[in-house]
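step=predict obj=Holin n=117
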Amino acid sequence: MDVQFDPQIVTIALAAAAIAKILVDMVRMSNRLPSWASPLLAVGFGIAAAFLLLVANGTIVNGQTAAQAMVAGILAAGAAVGATELQKHEPAAASATPLLFAPIEIAAPGPREGSGA
């Protein structure tokens, strides 16, 4: 039996990840949540967003659509939680030694040095 993976699931998951991340951040800003609540919210919002995106795309609602929404929602939750973890560790990256580039001097318009003007 040949199993084929539908690339639409990944596309829906990436779109749902952004929606889930925004919704989880909005809930976290308005409420104090325990640390375990954010990933669960991301799963719920991810599945709901994936399902709504499938329906908005004109997909007929059936068992296959529900399964695709579940898989895409779980992938979306993983991406949303991963983005949140990266944001938490961002200050450590900001305090790292910055890259040093050679200074660039921009000449002002006018007579050039050594031109005799």
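step=describe
The chain has a mean pLDDT of 82.
step=end
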